[in-house]
Amino acid sequence: MAEKKKRRRPRSYLEDFAPSVSGGYEFTGEVWRFRAERGSFRDLSLKLWLLSAGLVAAALVPGFSRHPAMLNCFYVILPFAAGVFATAFAVTAALRIALSRGELRGYRYEKSVKALPSRAVAAAVCSLAGAAAIVVYSLLNPGDFRFWEIAALIAADALLAACALRMRQAVRLSVWDGNDQQQDEGRMLDPFFTIKKQEEINHNEQN
Questions:
Q1: Within-domain flag for 102
Q2: What is the pTM of this model?
Q3: Per-residue pLDDT tens digits for 41-82
Q4: I want to staple 58 with a disulfide (CB 3.0 to 4.6 A). Which of 18, 138, 140, 160 is the partner?
C-alpha cells in the first residue's frame, strides 16, 4: 500500500528514469503492451479515433446554437461547459492510447487506459444532464419552444453519451500486459533464460 501511495505523488514517474552509460537517462519502469485477444491494436486505434471525432463534434455543436436556453440559462449552460471539459479529458486519454502503437510506459498507462473509463462516464453524465436541463427549460418556458433546435440539442447530447460509453467499453475490453522493462532486458541477456525459452518453444512445436 505504501508503494502504491508513493507512486501516486505528482511527478513520481521521474523515479522510473535512471542515468545511462551515455550520460543521459533511460526508462527502467513498467511498460504495458497491448495483447490482441479481442482484435488488433489497429482496430482499437481506429475505433478510438472515430469515437473521439464523434465526441468532439457532439460536445461543440450545442455551442453554436442560438436557442435562448444556450444563451442565458445557467442550468443549461453549466452541463454544456462541464461536458466540454470532460470530453477534452476523455479524448486526450483516447488519443494517447491510439498514438501509442500498442506500448505505454507505466505513468502514461495510468493517465490513459486506467483513467479513460471514468473520464468517459463523466462526459456521458454531463451530456445526459444537459439533455435533461433542456427538457426542463422547454417545460418552464413554452414560449421559447423550438422543436427542431431542441431536438438537435438533445440529439447531440445523446450522441455524446453514446460515443463516451462505447469508448469506455472499448478500452475496458482491451487487454494490456504489464512487465518490468529492466527485468526483461536482464532475462534476454541471461543465456540460461534463452535456452529455457528455446526448450519451451521446441516442446510446444512437438506437441
A1: yes
A2: 0.71
A3: 899 999 999 999 999 999 988 888 887 878 888 888 899 999
A4: 160
Say how many domains are in the chain.
Answer: 1
Domain range enclosing 159: 33-176
Q: Is 24 part of a structural domain of the chain?
A: no
Here the CATH number for the domain that contains residue 118 is 1.20.120.230
* Per-residue exposure over 17-47, b if at least 16 CB sit within 10 Å of its own CB, e if not: eeeeeeeeeebbbbbbbbeeeeeebeebbeb
Residue 180: predicted pLDDT: 53
Nearest to 98 by CA among 7, 170, 181: 170
Cell of 84: 466540454
- Residue 18 CA to residue 4 CA, distance in Å, equals 20
**Which single residue is written with the C-alpha cell 433542456?**
134
